[in-house]
Each structure stands twice: as structure tokens, then as C-alpha cells.
Amino acid sequence: MTAPKADPLYVRYMEAFSASTLHTRSCTACQNGQVCEAGAPIHTAFAAAQDAYLARQSAKRRT
Q1: Greatest Cα-to-Cα distance within the chain, rounded to the nearest angstrom
Q2: Which pLDDT belongs to residue 41?
Q3: Cα–chain-centroid distance for residue 29?
């Protein structure tokens, strides 16, 4: 029996979360509530992926 395919949107969300977390661990600016120049696109990508995933989950619950 084969495992079900992973949801691409969820995978992208988790990869973005991981990238954001890893960056924040090594960036003192991002640890202090600021966003550094290098971290801004990483954190923005995470927020966008999270919003997309949660919006889809919310839409599924309404149907």
C-alpha cells in the first residue's frame, strides 16, 4: 500500500515555517521583534504560505 501524496500547499507552508524559524534562530534583529533585510522575504513567504493554507482550511470547514 502506498502512502497518500503530501498536500503541496501544506508542504510549502511547513518549508516556509522551517526557513523562518531557522533564520530567526541565527538573527539577533529578528529575535528582537525587528525584521532584518535578509529575513524580510523569508518571513513574508512564511506569512503568505500560512495565510493560504489557513484560508483553504477555513473554506473546507464552511462546506
Answers
A1: 48
A2: 97
A3: 19
